[in-house]
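User: Run a structure prediction on this.
Assistant: Running it now.
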Amino acid sequence: MTPSITTFQWVPPFARGQVRDIRARWAFEETGIAYRVNLVESAKTPEHRAFQPFGQVPTYRDDTVALFESGAIVLHIARQAPGLLPPDPAGQARAEQWVIAALNSVEPFANDLVMVDLFQADEPWSAMRRPAVVEALQTRLGDLAAALADKPFLDDAFSAGDLIMACVLRIVPRDAILSGYPTLLAYLDRCTARPAFQKALADQLALYAPASDAPAPVAEGVLA
């Protein structure tokens, strides 16, 4: 059975290139594992929620396991073939550490800014909350920049940890915030210049290229 992932058949323009299936696609490309994409109109249906209780994408299935959560999916793919995990147990543990750090210690702060600037922009309290959100995100970016220092990647070589961290950094406004951290900006560009990412991004964008920009019946959770 060829592994498969699910993603939305339509998303609004702002989400194209950012839907979380990009993470699984990139992992497949780095490891050279062939995969299929199954499209869903909504992740909120009872059928989808029976498997993904939070109503999000992507999900993953192969002969041995069915998974949700992009970090778990990427790590599972990484364990199937060389390319995203070091050969030694200690290196693997460090790569997994950075996957979790990206998802737990950086992404929530980036998502807070997305919520304030995009989904909650019309709320009367949004403008008042934004400076604190930006400050918290900048603190985390500073911590990450210090940890990266002058290394090309977070550990000895590109790994699943870098893949997830780069995806998280893509959420951060590049000119307004990320440009204040030249080390991180160069790191992000280094990661996303990889042919595997470029292929994954092109494939996701191609999925939505023919789509109408008219609102679909369901477009919630596109950044989940």
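Residues 214-224 have pLDDT under 50 and may be disordered.
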